[in-house]
Design brief:
Layout lengths: L1 H5 L8 E2 L2 E5 L2 E5 L9 H8 L18 E7 L6 E7 L12 E3 L13 H8 L9 H12 L7 H6 L11 H9 L7 H6 L3 H4 L27 E4 L4 E3 L3 H11 L4 E4 L17 E4 L9 E2 L5 E2 L5 H11 L8 H8 L5 H4 L36 H24 L15 H7 L11
Parallel strand pairs: 1-7, 2-6, 8-10, 9-10
Antiparallel strand pairs: 2-3, 4-5, 4-6, 7-8, 11-12
Bound molecules: FE2/S2 (inorganic) cluster (2 copies).
The site of one FE2/S2 (inorganic) cluster has 11 residues, from loops.
């Protein structure tokens, strides 16, 4: 069929009946024993029993589930370590990945990774629920020898929510590892040479990444068919059309990053088969010769980088604006696996109805906000405190419009900012 239509001699690639990947250096296979729709997060926590990786929103919004995945690019064949929301990724989509969870980069016995050590050193953790996701997001940012700036570190944490520590200490901990961190910040870093086992190859704390399962064999990317789950992974267009032909009238879904799963739950829709097309090279190619074309499965992260590069060429400067816009779509770990939306992803008929007689006319009927309630509650407390301080300062004769209040708003901070002394305090 392929030859007749496209004139290609592309041969179908060999097909596996199981998905194979590594989890913290140990090779695992997943097949019919796992039901279709099982997320990587569920697999990590409930099958591999690694409870360090958390989950909360299961929508790609909170970052509690972030893990690091080293994935070979189907076109460049280069391996890249990316932060990934394990709540969104089907475990069947992980074929060939090298996945690391927070347990796999350092621990009390073998020594902590600098990212873990610094988070503790800067008091960046309280209940600790968000900490594994924070750590793995930062780990992915510095993996593969990457050296982010402080601005890049800050920008990479748009998808990691913390309900209790406060972001300043978390960001300070990670910015101190940036290449442009101030000498003062670097001095505050955890001293890994004294406290942690040092890797002879990297000079950093041992992450255990050199350790491979003794049965480890290089996983060759190939097509996969998991019969009970009706899950197909294809790595060539030829395979894709063969699978579609074989499915006949079966209702199927083409799956790329599966990031829409957070909003459009697939169990609410009727698909009898799913075809993972993420690793089809033709769909991940960015072509800059004789124009600028972006494959349908290019991720937003890849698209942003390509737009920035292409914007330097005459006639393409507008791509800077597109790159800036994509940079605020979702968050880093979602963008790492989120393909550029296609024309059919946009509803042909898109209408907004305002709700009549709603008790809160500005409120949303629905939103995927998860961490925001906690954030809103804390900001409400802060603004109430600020109003009280305004009054106290006016009583003390201060007429300035602006004053700075340092967070966290401890008793000392409040006392100093209020321009009163503790003798004026009434304790009830
Ligand atoms: Fe995955 Fe919230 S649980 S982003
Ligand atoms: Fe508790 Fe961040 S330390 S949620």
């Amino acid at each position: 069929m392929w030859n007749a239509i496209f004139g290609s001699s592309e041969e179908p690639s060999p097909t596996a009946l199981e998905v194979t990947f590594t989890l913290n250096g140990k090779q695992v296979t997943v097949g019919n024993e796992v039901v279709e729709g099982t997320s990587l997060n569920t697999y990590i926590r409930d099958v591999a029993k690694l409870k360090g990786t958390k989950f909360m929103c299961t929508e790609g919004g909170c970052g509690a589930c972030v893990v690091a995945a080293t994935i070979e690019h189907p076109v460049t064949k280069q391996k890249q370590t990316l932060s990934i929301n394990s709540c969104l990724v089907p475990v069947f989509a992980c074929h060939g990945w090298d996945i690391r969870t927070v347990e796999g980069i350092g621990n009390k016995r073998d020594g902590y990774h600098p990212v873990q050590a610094n988070l503790a050193q800067f008091n960046g953790t309280q209940c600790g629920f968000c900490s594994p996701g924070m750590v793995m997001n930062m780990y992915s940012l510095v993996a593969d020898g990457k050296t982010p700036t402080m601005a890049e570190v800050e920008n990479a944490f748009g998808g990691n929510l913390c309900r209790c520590t406060g972001y300043r200490s978390i960001l300070d901990a990670f910015k101190a590892l940036a290449k442009d961190a101030t000498p003062m910040m670097k001095k505050q870093c955890a001293d890994i040479e004294d406290m942690y086992k040092i890797c002879s190859k990297t000079g950093l704390a041992c992450s255990g990444s050199c350790k491979k399962d003794s049965n480890f064999e290089e996983i060759v990317p190939k097509s996969v068919k998991i019969p009970a789950a009706n899950w197909y992974k294809v790595t060539t267009l030829n395979d894709l059309f063969s699978v579609i032909t074989s499915l006949g009238a079966t209702v199927y879904q083409l799956s790329a990053g599966n990031t829409a799963e957070g909003v459009y739950r697939h169990y609410n829709r009727q698909f009898d088969a799913r075809i993972d097309v993420k690793d089809v090279p033709d769909l991940r190619t960015i072509n800059t010769s004789g124009g600028f074309t972006v494959g349908a499965n290019v991720t937003l992260t890849e698209a942003i980088a390509a737009f920035k590069t292409q914007a330097a060429i005459t006639g393409y400067s507008y791509l800077t604006e597109l790159a800036n816009h994509l940079d605020v779509v979702a968050n880093t770990s979602v963008r790492n696996n989120y393909k550029v939306p296609g024309a059919k992803d946009i509803p042909a008929d898109f209408r907004i109805n305002f709700r009549k007689n709603a008790s809160n006319p500005l409120g949303l009927l629905n939103s995927k906000a998860t961490g925001e309630p906690a954030l809103n509650m804390s900001i409400v407390c802060f603004f109430a405190l600020r109003n009280a301080l305004d009054s106290a300062r006016k009583d003390a004769g201060d007429v300035a419009d602006y004053y700075d209040i340092k967070l966290p708003a401890t008793v000392e901070t409040i006392a100093m900012t209020s321009l009163t002394d503790t003798s004026q305090f009434t304790f009830a």
